[in-house]
Amino acid sequence: MSYTLDRKMPPAPADVSGPKPLDGGWGWMVVFGAHISIGFAYSTPKALSIFFKEIQEDLGASYSEIAWISSIMLAVMYAGGPVSSMLVSRFGSRPVVMMGGLMCGVSMVTASFGSSIVYLYLCIGIIGGWGLCFNLNASLTIISKYFLAKRPLANGLAMAGSPVFLCFLAPVNQFLLGHYGWRGSLLILGGMMLNCCVAGALMRPVAQPCDPRACAPPQEVKQTNNTKSSGSCMKNVKTFVDLSFFKDQGFIIYLVGNVMFIFGAYAPIVFLSAYAISLGVEEYSAAYLLSIMGFVDMFVRPGTGLIANSKWIRPRIQYLFSFAMVFNGTFHLLCPLMTTYTLLVAYAVFFGVGFGMVFALIFECLMDLMGSQRFPSAVGLVTIIECFPMLLGPPAAGFLVDIFGDYKYLFFMCGGVITTGGLFLFVMNVYNYNRLDRASRGDDAEQNQNTTENQEQVSSSEAQMELMDPEAKETNTAQLDPEDRQETG
User: Which residues are within 8 A (CB) of 155 and not within 5 positions of it... i.e. 6 or more apart?
Assistant: First the structure.
C-alpha cells in the first residue's frame, strides 16, 4: 500500500545540502513572527475595504477606481517576489521583514494626507505593496529553513495570521472610521503596522555548521569578486526568475489553477461589506461579516495544516488543494441567494472555511512539488505571474457593479472562475500522476530486465568456463607470463 502511495504522489526533491531542519525550538518563535508579518500582509488589503465607501464619497471615485487601491497593493505584493527573494538570499529574512514593516507604516501615514485617488494608488498601492511583499516572502522562506517534517503545521499556523488579523482589524477599522474618519484611521493603522519590525527581529538566521574549507580565510576570492560581480548579479537574477520551471508539467498545472483562483479570490472580500450595506444591513454588522470570516479562517488554517500533515493526506495534498478551490468557488456562486443577514453570516462562515483551506495549502503544495531548495525561486516566479490576475480581478468585479448596478454578477464571475480552476487542477493532477506512475513502472521494468540480462550473461560465462576442455585450460596457462606461472605453480 505504501508503495502505491509513493508512486501516486512522488515526494518533493530531497534536500541533500545543508543541515537538517530543527522542526522546533526557536523555529516556533519564527512561526510567531511570521504569523504577525503574514497577518498584516494578507489582511491589510482586505481590511482597507472598510474605508472605501468614505474615500469614494470624499474623493468622488467610482467602484472600479476605488477597487484599484487594494488591487495595486496586492499586485505589487506579488510582483515583487523575485526582488524580495534576492534580498532574502543576500541579507537574510530578519532585515528584509523589518524594512517591509517600516515601509508599510510610512505608506499608511503618508496616505492619510492624500487628496486624490492617484495619490492613494502611489502611497497605499506601491509603497505599501512593496512593504507587504518583503513581509510575506521573507517569512515564508525562513519557515522552510526551520521546518521539514512539521512544515505543513508550521505553514498553517503562520498563514493563520491572515484571518486572525482580519478578525481583529475589521471591527477596529470600523471603530476608527467612526471616531477619526478615514484619514485619522490610516494614520493609526500605520503605527500599528510598525509591529512588523518587531516580528522581523524574531527571525533569527539558521545556524550553519562550519566547514573547515569554507571557514578558511579566502585568498583568491577577493580578486575574483572584483572581476565577476556583474556576472554574480546576473546569476542571481536567473536563479530567482528561473524559466526552467516551465519544463515541469506539475508546476504548470499548479500555476494555471493558482492564477484562476487568485483572479477571483479577493473581489468578494473587497465588496462583501458594501454588498451587505446595499441589502440594508447596518454598517457595523456589515463589517462583522469580515470578522466572522476571519474567525472561522483562523481555526481552519492550522486545522488544515494538521490534516495535510497526516500520512493519509500528505501524499495526496494536491487533490485536497483542488477540493478546497471547488468548495470556495461554489459558495461564491450561491452568495447572490443570500438576501438576509442570517444567510450572509452563513455565507461568511463557509467562505472562511474554503478560503482558509486554500491558503493553508497554496504554498505547501508548491513546496511539495519543488522542494525547499527550489522553493524560493519557484515562489518568486509564481508571485510575479500572479500579480496580473491580482491586479485585474477586483477592478473587473467593480466594473461589473458599475455596469449592472448589482453585486451578484461579481460573485457569479469569481465563483465560476475559481470552481473551474479547482476542477482543472483535479483532472490534470489525476492525469499527471498517472503518467508519472506509468513512467516509473516502465523504468523499473527496464531496470529489472537489464538486471536479468546481466545475470544471464554472467551465468552463461561461468558455464562456458566450466565446460572448457583441458587443452584450452593448458593453452590459457601457457599464455601467462613467467611470473604469473610461478604464482600459479
Answer: 140, 143, 147, 305, 360, 363, 364, 367
pLDDT score at 204: 83
| Confidence tier at 220 by pLDDT (50, 70, 90) | very low
Residues 67 and 391: their CA atoms lie apart, in Å, by 10
* 263: phi then psi, degrees, rounded to nearest 5: -60, -40
The DSSP symbol for 220 reads: S
Q: Which residue has the cell 504548470?
A: 252
Cell of 350: 463557509
Count other Cβ atoms within 10 Å, centred on residue 224.
11
What is the per-residue pLDDT across 348-388, written as a single tens digit (0 to 9) for each?
999 989 988 898 888 788 877 777 677 777 877 887 888 88
Q: What phi, psi does 473 have (nearest 5°)? A: -65, -40
Give the Cα separation of 37 and 44 in Å (integer): 11
Provide DSSP, 160-187.
THHHHHHHHHHHHHHHHHHHHHHHHHHH
Please state the separation of Cα 3 from the chain's center in Å: 29
CB atoms within 10 A of CB 425: 26
Q: Is-contact 411 333, C-beta < 8 A? A: yes
Name, in order, each residue with C-beta under 8 angstroms of 18's C-beta and a sequence gap of 6 or more: 208
Angle 235-255-253 (CA atoms, 0-180°, nearest 5)? 115
Task: Tell me the pLDDT tens digit for each residue of 256-291.
Answer: 999 999 999 888 888 888 888 888 888 888 888 888
- Give yes or no for a contact between 344 and 338, defined as CB atoms under 8 angstroms apart: yes
Q: How far apart are CA 364 and CA 151, in angstroms?
A: 8
Count of Cβ atoms closer than 10 Å to residue 342 Cβ: 9
Q: How far apart are CA 277 and CA 341, in angstroms?
A: 10
- Please identify which residue in the block is written with the cell numbers 463589517: 287
The pLDDT confidence band at residue 9, using thresholds 50, 70 and 90, is very low
Mean pLDDT of the chain: 78
Query: How far is the C-alpha of 425 from the C-alpha of 37, rounded, in Å?
Result: 29
